[in-house]
Structure formats: C-alpha cells, structure tokens
Design goal:
The complex is a heterotrimer. Chain A is mostly helical. Chain A has helices at residues 2-36, 56-63, 65-96, 103-115, 118-128, 135-142, 155-180, 184-192, 197-224, 229-234, 246-255, 260-302, and strands at residues 39-40, 51-52. Helix content of chain A is 76%, strand content 1%. In chain A, strands 1-2 form a two-stranded antiparallel sheet. By secondary structure, chain B is an alpha/beta fold. In chain B, helix 2 links the parallel strand 1 and strand 2 (62-68). Chain C has a two-stranded antiparallel ribbon with strand order 1-2. In chain C, helix 4 (79-110) packs across helix 11 and helix 11 (228-244) runs antiparallel to helix 14. The chains are: A mainly alpha, B alpha/beta, C mainly alpha. Chains A and C meet through helix 1, helix 3, helix 4, helix 5 and helix 7 of A and helix 1, helix 4, helix 5, helix 6 and helix 8 of C.
Chain lengths: 303, 442, 311
C-alpha cells in the first residue's frame, strides 16, 4: 500500500524541482510583467505603488513611431538574417557533403563562432568595422577601393553580416546532418536514372531535407529575435534607430527612459510575436507527423 | 583591534597637539570607517582615483570605489537610492540626474553638514567654487525648479564639471594661415575648408551618434545661436529659427567632419582628434589631459585652445558631475568629510595636477597648475561664459533628450528635413510635458 | 566508416580555405591584437610586424597578479574577481540545470501522470522567451519582492555574517543570477535530454528494479550513465549561455558579483576605448568556450542536431 503511494508520487518527485524553479523564475515573472504592463511604473517604485493605467502603455506604443520603426528593424533583421543564413548554410552543406579528409576538423572550426560570447563577437566586429583603423577599410584602402561607412550609413547591413558570420554554421551543421541521413536508395535510384547534380538537389535532396530545414529556419528565426548583445556592443542601436531591435529598445526603455510599464508592454508585444512563430512551428511539426502517419497507413493498406 | 585603533587615535591626537596646528583631529571619530563610493568611469574620476590614497593616509578613512560607465552608474543609483538602506555613502551623479534624485528626496540637503561646526571646515571658502557649476549641478528648488534662486538650496557640489572649449591644431592653422574662429560663421567656414586644404583630414570632430551624443552636440550649438529647448512657460521652442540654425551647423560640421562621423560617440570623436584626423575639436574640457598624454595622443604639443565661438552670444556648456550624499547612506558624516576634502582648495589642486578638472576659480589661476597645464587659463576664461541653464534639468529630460538625439541622428544619416524633424521633436516634447503636468497652471 | 576519400578539384580546396579563414580569422585577429599596444593597433602600420607584449593581459589581470606591473598605476579593472564570479555562476548553474533537468525529462519520458501534457507543453513554449523579455520582471522581483526582511531571523543572520545593508534580496547575489540562468536553460535541457532518455532500453531499468532498486537508484545508477553523451551536450550549451550572458547579469549583479561580459561592456566606455586591454579581456572570456569547441565538438554537434531535429 505504502509502496503504491510512493510509486504514484515518484514522477512528481522527479518533476518537482524543475517545476518549482520554472514557476518561480520564469512563469511568475512573466505574469508579473503582464501585470506591470498595465501600470505607469517607475524603477524607483515597487509595483504596488505604481498607478494602474489600463491599456494606456499598449496604445501609446502602438502609435509611437519609434516603436514602430524598431519593430520594423527587428523584422527586417530577422528576415534577412534567416534568409541569408539558410541560403548560405544549405548551399555550403550541399557543396561540402563529400567524403573528404579532415571533415570533422572543419566542422570544429566552423562552430567556433557560435560558441564565442556575443559580447566578444560584437567587439571583434566593432573593431573590424572601425572607419579608419578597422580591418575592412584598411584592406579596401590597400587595394585601392573606396572605404565603406560600415557602422554609420550601412549599420543594419553590417550588423546582419556579423550575425550571418556567427550563425550560418548552425544551419550548415544541421543541414549537413540532414543530408547525410537521407536514404541512400533514393539517391542511388536517381543517379541510375541519369539525373544531373542539380536535378538531384532540386528534386530529391531539398524536398527530403525540407522538414528539417523548416524547423531549423524557425528555430533560427526565434533566436534572431533574441539577439541583443552583439548589436549593443557594435552600435548601441544607432545611428538613428537603424539597428535598434526590439530587445535593445526594451532594455533602453527600462533603464534609460525609466519606464518599466512601457518596457513591459513592449516585452509583451515581442512575446506575442514569438508565440505566434512557435505555434506555427508546432502546427508544422504536427502536420508533418500526421502526414507521415497517413502515408504509412496508405502504404500499409496497399500491401 | 580596538586597542590598536585607540592607540593610533591617541598618537595622532598627540601628534596634532604637538604640531600645534589643531586642538583635535576632526577626522578622528571616523577613523577606520570604510566609505563605499560610486564614481563614473571618466577622465576626471580616473585622476581622482590617484589622489584618494592621500585622503586615506591623512584621515584614516578607508574607501571602496565602485567605478561604472556613467549611464550604468545612473541605473545602479536609481536602484540603490530607492532602497531603504543603500550601499553607497557618496555618489557622483550626472548633472541631469539631479532632478530625479532631488525630486524623489534621495539626496541629502547639505545645509545641516555645513552648519555642523565639527564637520564644516572654516577655511573651505565656498565663494571660490565656480558659481555657474554650483548653480547648475548643486542647486535645486530655485528658478524653474532646477536652478539657484530665492527658494533654492544646495544638494551637491560640482566635481568633475566641465565647460566647452575649442581645441585646434596650431600646426595646421599656421601652415595655411588660418585664423582661429571667433564666431560660428568662421567656425563653419574653416571646418569645411580644412578637408580641401588637407585631403583626408576632417574639419571638426563632433559626437553625432544616435541618442545622447547627437543631442549633446546639438545643445552645444543651440545656446550660442540664441536658442533654447523651452521658453519661460515651458513651451518647446526648439523648432524656432535658432534651433534650425543649430541643427544646420551640426549637419555642416558632421558633413565636413572625418570619415564615419555620423556614428561617432564621444570616444570616437576624441579618438579621431587624438589621432590627427581632424583639425578642430569642440567639446568638453575633460579631454585636455588625454591630449597631452603621448601614449594616447599623436598631437601632443600641437593643440591650441580658444573660447567656444559665439553665435549671437557666448554661451558655453555646463555639465559633468557633482558629488552628493544619498539620503539612505550609512556613513553620511564621514562622506561629507570626504566630499569637503575633495572639493577643498587643496583637494581641487591635487586633482587638477593629476589631470582632473578643477572646480574652483583659484585653481584655474594657480601658477603651478598653469605651469603644468598652460591651457588652464583659457579654460578659466571660458568659465565666465558658462551658462548654468544650458539644458533643462527636469525629471522628463531623459526622455526628451533621447527623442532629440534619435531624431537628429536621422537628420544626419537619413537626410530628414531639419525643420520637419525639429517640429516633430517639439510636438512630442509638448506631449511629454503635458503628461508630466507642466501646463497645469496655464 | 569509409576510408576512401574522393579527390576534389582545386577550386573546392580554395573554397574550404576561404571558409576557414572567414570563421577563424576574426578570432585570430583579436588574439594577435591583444598582444599589441594601443598605439600599434591604431597607428595603421598593421600586419604581423610588431613587438608582442603581455602588457594588456597584465592590465586586465592586475588584481590577481602577484607583482605590480610598472605601467599600471591604479588597478581599476577587477578582472580576476569577475572571472571568479563568472566561473562560480556558470558552473553552479550548469550543474543544477543538468541534475534538475534530467530528472524532469526522465519523468516526462517514463511516467504517465496527471499534468504531464501541460508541463511538457509549457516547457516547449517558454523555450522561446528572450532574455530581454525577462529583464523588467526579473529586475523588479529580484530587487523588491524576493527579499528577506533584515529584521527577520534569517535576514539578520545573513547581514551579520556577510555584512551589507538593507533587506536581503536576491539581486546582487550569485544565487540570484544562478536562479535565472537555471530557469532559462531548463526548458532546453529538458527538451534535448528527452531524446536521449527515450533510447535507454526499458529492460535495463526493469532488471534493476527487479533487483530491488528504488526509482531514484534506477535513475542515478542505470539511466544517468547511459545518457552521458546527451548530458555532455546539454552541459556545454548550458555553460555557454551562462558564461556568455550579459543583459540579465548586468541588471542583477552589484559591484561584487559582476561577471566578465559586464566588465567588457563597461570597459567599452565612451571616453577612451582601450582596444588592447578590451581584446585581452575578450580573449580571456573566449578561452573556455574555445577549449570546449576544440575538445568536444562532437558532443556539441550531437546536441545541436538532437535539439533541432526533434524541435
């Protein structure tokens, strides 16, 4: 009898620490934030002292051109980053999917950028982009090309390049893994049918990799909204608001403008956006599974 | 421990008596206290760090300094000052924090310390402190709420305060027979002539990066042009003719400036001057020490100093830092002693000799200081034109400043029309001010 | 494993060389620059001809050096202290996350219980929360709500032992930062460990249970050793985030609990960018992740694929 109760309690005992920590340090804060977003809240007040203002923060933000611009910057940053990284990463994977000596060493070198602290990445690129002493402009000068105003007029592009440098390897590694787990039989069949390299890629490899690619892309998209330190160190959001992504604007609103309520409302907007992407990702994987099941069922019926 | 402490105190007292200079050591009660002090990472405070050991040696009061970049410092202080009991005994605050802190009752009024005969040094000579700075940084409650005046009183003492001066390359000016600009017209003309005369060199390096930097650069030109952010009824007038002229000046300067100037923060702007990439530098006086430091500067000995050029009037910046005692501090009296020591004639001269910015008239006139830093005399002259009402120091300023800085950065990088941009700033400022209740009495 | 390697055209090797230069170049550049004086970095006569100096490292490490370098007249950069904080925070939070996370994912995989689905769904959802979103609430809670009054028994005990003033709050302590990191990393760890635990054959667990082992014994003695590769991958990813994170740490740390990323950002102060010293601190911060990458790249790649493919 006692044994049975203990057994029934076992899963809860295993779960308890994780649940407690996540409730205290993740869910409760999120709730607290939603609550705070309805208040006119200054960092020198506790939340109880702050005045309740209803939806005012949300409405102000919605009409705030700076917020809209920053939202636009975030979206275009995420879009370009994910697009370029997908194209380059998958392209490289297709190119390097060969049996060559030292592939594991190469992969090790390629993941190096991902492991380094964003703060350090930001500082390396800030140095390389420096208008006069930076590596790029010095190189351009040396070979007689006009120099580029990297972090000035082309700040968003420069920031995007830095992110591509850091995160393309992620896509590359995952697509390479996907490529190498493709069923050999399908590729063999295609080769026997006389399909060229391109035809193989377009008609066989890419469609078969697609589920993994979509999930990878969505994961990267979610991560692209989390980027903050690299940009903070490189440009602090400037010039103008040209690189002020939402995460950065949230932190500036909270610390520099001292408007915690508005920052909380902004966080909620970002959260809703991400929630939407996450739900899309779930829906997609569910749909994938269902389709796979249906196919399997169909195959079984045929037999 | 307490025994050895007592014996040290005793021996010190004996020493003091024997020297016959004082009957008691005013620091004796506080010997062994550790003060926790919050200072910014700033050239002046780097100089202060060098003289602090002297304070400890003289008074027996230990110090622990938390040095932070100044925006970070402000964040930290917001948090610490809001607690019932805070960590910091003495803080340096940015001038625009004055409004927030005094309004929230977080800074000690200094009257009770200056009234206390045991603490207050009769030889302090408060009249020698530069009045523009004291009104700008230390006072609150008078005119417009943030200046001196019949209802004002003192909450802090300027320390690491600064005004604006024009630095120029003597060698370049001599080479082309240029005259040091006296007015804004001359300044802008020369700024744009330099890139033609010296290919690859920018005219004047100015900060221009989005946010605080661009706003600061604009304010530098706004007052000499006769403009202001608000009129006397708190109506935004930043978009009037003077405002537009100031923004145009900023744009001209950045256009004729060194490469990449639109993204310069203070560090980059100074860096390009130190590196010899520009012929002029118009900003705060704190840079003088670095310009003469051969490990940082390529232009040692080539820089001359002149007053901030005039537009319709001379009005140079007032800003920088003050030091004050948080209302929630633990060792307020010892903190006052440190504050008094640092800003005394002796402390002020020490920090000036270490490369800091003096805040006393006498230090600017001091022979020894002038021998080491020949520019000190020009700086002293510049102080006469320092405008204590250089920018509004009101609690909502942070927000207006950020908006102004972002909008100006757009003018500089995206060719936004100046009038339109400033109209936008004025309109949003009006909204902010309405919300903050500045028009309640209209 | 296939041992025959195909020969590739020279252009292919050129491409690979270019890729290697691109991914490793910036890191090497930082490494080289960290041995240069500022004057050499700025002056433009760049390249590899310079006199290497460890001066930057001396400046950075001045608070832990046993001698006082000549060029440092005031040791303002407390790098050693920050490095210690970073180590404590990253190691403790990684260890906690792993233990707690694999217990939870074991429960999710092996047991059917009430609330299992909602727990699993929540875990998935909170994976997407960006640190910036947590900034405001964590700042408010850790400073104002998660406190022990200094007049209470525990509070006064802490104040007497450790000093400091005011109420005892989570903010400004190592535990405060560790708590956020554990919570932030748990969803990810639970997620990727599931795919490893599923592969543990049930028969092994049954056998142990027949021998009379309780559920915790089964878990620690049978399951844990079998999912070591998964644990290694999860550990590296957790450590990486805890080691590199800036935003939340900067909101929660005080002058004694600063971590290295905060120190680096603070040191990019606007008044004078000392490139040499910053690159040296950056290099020191980057060394542990670089070592991991070189020695455990296989685990990293396993972790990445497990995390994404199941996603």
């Amino acid at each position: 009898m006692q044994r049975a109760t203990a057994n029934r309690l076992t899963p809860y005992m295993f779960m308890a620490p994780a649940v407690v920590i996540m409730v205290i340090a993740l869910l409760y804060p999120l709730g607290y934030m939603v609550w705070g977003s309805f208040r006119d809240w200054d960092p020198s007040q506790t939340i109880g002292e702050a005045e309740f203002v209803g939806l005012k923060n949300y409405i102000t933000l919605w009409h705030d051109p700076n917020f809209r611009e920053s939202l636009g910057v975030t979206l275009s940053f995420a879009f370009f980053v994910v697009t370029f990284e997908m194209v380059i990463g998958v392209g490289l994977a297709l190119l390097l999917d060969r049996n060559i000596r030292g592939m594991s060493v190469l992969r090790t070198l390629f993941i190096l950028p991902m492991m380094i602290a964003p703060v350090v990445v930001g500082l390396m690129w800030r140095y390389m982009y420096h208008p006069t002493v930076g590596t790029f402009n010095r190189f351009f000068e040396a070979i007689g090309l006009p120099t580029v105003d990297w972090l000035g007029a082309n700040a968003l592009m420069s920031v995007i390049i830095a992110d591509i440098w850091q995160w393309t390897p992620f896509i590359f590694i995952l697509s390479l893994a996907a490529l190498q787990s493709l069923p050999r039989s399908a590729l063999e069949a295609a080769r026997i049918d006389g399909a060229t390299g391109w035809q193989q890629i377009i008609h066989i490899k890419l469609p078969l990799m697609m589920p993994v690619l979509i999930v990878t892309g969505l994961l990267r998209l979610i991560d692209a909204f989390k980027v903050l330190e690299v940009i903070l160190v490189m440009t602090e959001g400037g010039p103008g608001l040209s690189t002020e992504i939402l995460a950065l604007r949230i932190s500036r609103t909270a610390t520099e403008f001292r408007e915690l309520g508005v920052a909380a409302a902004m966080s909620n907007y970002l959260l809703i956006l991400l929630l939407f992407i996450t739900v899309m990702m779930f829906a997609f994987t569910r749909w994938q599974e269902m389709r796979a099941n249906r196919l399997r069922a169909a195959v079984e019926e045929d037999e | 421990m307490s025994h050895s402490l007592k014996s040290t105190v005793a021996s010190l007292t004996v020493a003091a008596c024997m020297a016959g200079t004082a009957f008691a050591n005013p620091y004796a009660d506080y010997e062994g206290t550790t003060l926790i002090v919050n200072f910014p990472a700033h050239p002046h405070y780097d100089a202060v760090m060098k003289i602090l050991p002297e304070f400890t040696a003289e008074t027996g009061i230990e110090l622990e300094v938390d040095q932070l970049p100044y925006l970070k410092m402000r964040e930290r202080q917001t948090l610490e000052l809001g607690q019932d009991e805070g960590e910091y005994d003495l803080i340096a605050y940015v001038v625009f924090s004055k409004a927030d802190y005094v309004f929230a009752d977080q800074l000690e009024n200094l009257a009770k310390y200056f009234m206390n005969p045991k603490l207050s040094d009769p030889g302090y000579d408060a009249g020698d402190l530069i009045d523009g700075y004291v009104y700008n940084i230390g006072f609150a409650g008078g005119d417009k709420g943030y200046l001196e005046g019949a209802t004002g009183s003192l909450f802090g003492i300027p320390y690491g305060s600064e005004t604006s001066v024009l630095g120029y390359r003597k060698d370049i000016f001599d080479k082309h027979g240029l005259k040091v600009p006296e007015t804004y017209d001359e300044l802008l003309e020369i700024a744009c002539k330099i890139p033609e005369l010296e290919p690859g060199m920018g005219g004047l390096s100015s900060r221009a990066a989005s946010g605080h930097h661009a706003a600061h650069a604009f304010l530098l030109h706004l007052n000499p042009m006769g403009g202001a952010i608000f009129d006397d009824q708190w109506n935004p007038v930043v978009n009037n003719e003077a405002g537009v002229k100031a923004a145009e000046a900023l744009k001209t300067i950045v256009d004729c400036g060194p490469e990449g100037a639109t993204n310069f923060g203070f560090g980059e702007a100074l860096g390009s001057f130190l590196n010899g990439d520009t012929a002029m530098f118009l900003d705060t006086t704190v840079v003088a020490g670095q310009i003469d430091d051969p490990s940082k500067s390529q232009v040692v000995g080539k820089v001359g100093w002149a007053l901030h050029p005039m537009g319709v009037e001379r009005a140079s910046q007032t800003g920088g830092f003050g030091i004050g005692i948080p209302a929630n501090a633990e060792n307020k009296e010892a903190a006052f002693l440190l504050m008094q020591w640092l800003t005394s004639k002796k402390g002020d001269k020490l920090v000036a000799m270490a490369g800091g910015n003096p805040s006393r008239f006498s230090t600017h006139a001091d022979e020894e200081v002038n021998a080491k830093y020949p520019h000190m005399a020009t700086f002293g002259e510049a102080l006469k034109h320092a405008d204590p009402d250089w920018r509004p120091i009101i609690p909502v300023w942070g927000k207006i400043n950020a908006d102004l800085g972002t909008t100006l950065s757009k003018v500089l990088t995206e060719d936004l029309d100046i009038q339109e941009a400033l109209d936008g700033v004025a309109e949003r400022t009006k909204g902010v001010m309405t919300e903050a209740g500045y028009y309640t009495w209209n | 494993m296939a041992t025959s390697y195909e020969r590739q055209p020279p252009a292919f090797y050129a491409l690979i060389a270019a890729l290697v230069v691109m991914s490793v170049g910036p890191v090497l550049l930082m490494f080289v620059n960290s041995f240069k004086l500022d004057v050499d970095i700025i002056s433009g006569t760049s390249g590899l001809i310079f006199l290497p100096t460890i001066q930057n490292y001396e400046t950075a490490l001045c608070d832990v050096l046993w001698y006082k370098p000549d060029h440092v007249d005031h040791c303002s950069l407390k790098f050693g202290n920050a490095f210690g904080n970073s180590l404590i925070i990253a190691l403790v939070s990684t260890a906690l996350t792993l233990v707690i996370g694999c217990m939870a994912s074991y429960a999710l995989v092996r047991f059917r219980f009430m609330g299992r689905d909602s727990v699993s769904l929540t875990t998935l959802m909170v994976r997407m929360v960006p640190p910036a979103v947590l900034l405001v609430p964590v700042f408010g809670l850790w400073n104002n709500e998660f406190c022990i009054g200094k007049t209470t028994y525990v509070g006064s005990l802490i104040r007497e032992t450790f000093g400091g003033r005011g109420d005892v709050c989570l903010a400004g302590t190592h535990s405060g930062i560790i708590l956020v990191y554990v919570a932030m990393n748990l969803p990810f760890v639970i997620w990727i460990l599931q795919s490893f635990i599923v592969q543990v054959p049930r028969s092994l667990e049954e056998a142990a249970r027949v021998d009379g082992a309780g559920p915790f014994q089964v878990f620690f003695k049978v399951v844990l050793p079998l999912i070591k590769p998964g644990l290694a991958a999860a550990a590296i990813f957790t450590f990486r985030i805890a080691w590199n994170e800036y935003l939340l740490a900067s909101a929660l740390s005080d002058r004694n609990t600063k971590t290295v990323p905060i120190l680096i950002v603070n040191n990019m102060s606007e008044f004078n960018v000392e490139w040499g010293v910053i690159m040296a601190t950056g290099m020191l911060l980057a060394i542990p992740p670089i070592i991991f990458t070189l020695f455990a790249s296989r685990q990293i790649i396993t972790g990445m694929t497990a995390g994404a493919v199941k996603g």
